[in-house]
């Protein structure tokens, strides 16, 4: 058996294991897991593209809601020399899996101390660091509007002026909840989307649809202005439809 075959088999086994892990955690608590499958490569690339935009400059990067690490792997591979990454994950089983990923990742030989996994809620993260890029995998539409306000406010506190926040939401969830959930749940979902829409109007610089994800997802880029006086001006983001790439 050649090296490619064994490597390919390991990747398939890893993906299958991640899929089962997501299903088990979703069964335990869908509100904090928020997904039934790991993010696709296309979604991971789009969420982490702003890291490449800084070139070789060392960055401070935060990933929140990393799950089993499908986005984390892409993120680590794109980090420039000297960059630091904080990974925040509230689920203890996912956090343990992420620590194993960091220990074994081939890009981190001799440099694992620049990546830390925090088992915590991002709003409780104790740090004095500010980040050039924040990548969020949190399931906002499973939270209350007040929780989303708190998390988004914390992201903006942690983001460097001029920094970029990326996050995604699954497409069609409002319509699914309208058809299947209670009226109260449908109202909560709409209220969360209204909260996010306010941040999008104020800070968004781009929006893309990734159809090659399960389920299809929409990715948003939010930019914290370098000049605070410009933050009051609403931005009108471009909307682009994606298949497998940006």
Structure write-up:
This protein is an alpha/beta fold. The protein has one domain (3-242): Rossmann fold, CATH 3.40.50. The chain has helices spanning 3-28, 30-33, 41-52, 70-78, 92-104, 145-158, 173-180, 183-203; strands at residues 60-64, 84-88, 115-118, 131-136, 159-170, 204-210, 217-223, 238-242. The chain has an eight-stranded mixed beta sheet. Strand 2, helix 5 (92-104) and strand 3 form a beta-alpha-beta unit. Helix 3 runs parallel beside helix 4 and helix 6 packs parallel to helix 8. The two termini are 35 Å apart.
Report the structural category: alpha/beta
- Average pLDDT score: 80
CATH topology type: Rossmann fold
The largest sheet is:
8 strands, mixed
Record field, number of beta strands: 8
CATH level-two architecture: 3-Layer(aba) Sandwich
Q: How do the SSEs run, as a string of H and E?
A: HHHEHEHEEHEHHEEE
> What is the strand content?
15-25%
Low-confidence stretches: 1-20, 231-246
**What is the C-level CATH assignment?**
Alpha Beta
CATH superfamily placement: Vaccinia Virus protein VP39
What strand line-up does the widest sheet have?
Answer: 3-2-1-4-5-7-6-8
């Amino acid at each position: 058996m050649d090296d490619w075959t064994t490597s390919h088999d390991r990747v398939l086994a890893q993906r299958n294991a991640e899929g089962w892990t997501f299903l088990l955690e979703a069964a335990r608590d869908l509100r904090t897991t928020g997904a039934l499958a790991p993010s696709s490569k296309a979604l991971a690339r789009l969420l982490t593209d702003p890291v490449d935009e800084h070139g070789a400059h060392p960055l401070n990067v935060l990933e929140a809601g990393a799950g089993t690490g499908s986005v984390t792997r892409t993120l680590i591979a794109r980090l420039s020399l000297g960059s630091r990454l904080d990974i925040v994950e509230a689920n203890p089983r996912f956090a343990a899996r992420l620590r194993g990923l960091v220990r074994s990742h081939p890009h981190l030989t001799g440099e694992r101390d620049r990546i830390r996994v925090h088992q915590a809620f991002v709003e409780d993260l104790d740090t004095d660091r500010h980040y050039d890029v924040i990548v969020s995998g949190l399931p906002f539409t499973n939270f209350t509007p007040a929780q989303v306000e708190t998390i988004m406010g914390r992201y903006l506190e942690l983001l460097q002026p001029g920094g970029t926040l990326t996050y995604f939401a699954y497409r069609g969830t409002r319509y699914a909840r309208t058809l299947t959930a209670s009226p109260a749940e449908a109202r909560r979902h709409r209220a969360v989307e209204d909260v996010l829409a306010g941040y999008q109007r104020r800070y968004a610089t781009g929006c893309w649809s990734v159809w090659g994800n399960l389920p299809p997802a929409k990715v948003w880029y939010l930019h914290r202005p370098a000049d605070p006086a410009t933050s009051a001006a609403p931005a009108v983001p471009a909307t682009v439809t994606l298949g497998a790439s940006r």
